Amino acid sequence: MCRRIYFRPLKLADAPTLLKWGQDQYYQNLAGFGHYQNLAEAEVAAGKYAARKYSYGICLRNSQQLIGLVELYNRGTNEEELLHTKEIGFLLDKDFSGQGYMTEALNILLDYAFKKLNQSEIWAGTFKNNFRSQNLLTRLGFKYIYSVDMSQLSKLFQYRADYFLLKKADWLNKEK
Prior knowledge:
Blueprint: E1 5-8, H1 15-22, H2 25-31, H3 39-51, E2 55-60, E3 66-74, H4 79-84, E4 85-92, H5 101-116, E5 121-127, H6 131-139, E6 143-149, E7 160-167, H7 168-175
Parallel strand pairs: 4-5
Antiparallel strand pairs: 1-2, 2-3, 3-4, 5-7, 6-7
Helix pairs in contact: 1-3
C-alpha cells in the first residue's frame, strides 16, 4: 500500500493547528483534547507534545500538512508491564475523517509498537460516545475489555471511558 501519510515530531510551528483543535468542542467532547484559549497556550502544548518520546504528528505526504496526532503512552504498575505494555492515543482533524487516514496511521503505529518496541499488548481508551474510534479499534483487532466511570475516580472527570486491548499475537496473526 502506498502510504499517504508520514509521522514526525510535533514542533512549535504546529501551535496554530493545535489551537484550532483546542478551540473546537468536537475534539474536547469526543477525545478530551485540551482547550487552548490562545496561541501561547497552544505553543506550550506543542512543546509538551514535542518532548514526549512516542508522540507524533500525522502529516499528508503530498503537502506536509499536519492532520492529526498519534501517541504511545506507558501503561502499567510494575517494571515488567511498563516495559511491554503501552496505551495509544489518537486524534484526526475532522476535515479528514472517513478517508482511511487514521486506519493507516494506527497500522503504522501498531506495527512499530509490536515489531520494533517489542510490546506484548496495546491498550486504547475512548470516551463512551466515541463510536467512530471504537469501530476503528475493533476493525484493527482490539477487543473491548471494560468501562470506567471516571467521575467515580475524581470530580475533575465527568465522563465514561471504554477500554480496548490488542495483544501482539492477535496483531501478528491478523497480518497472515
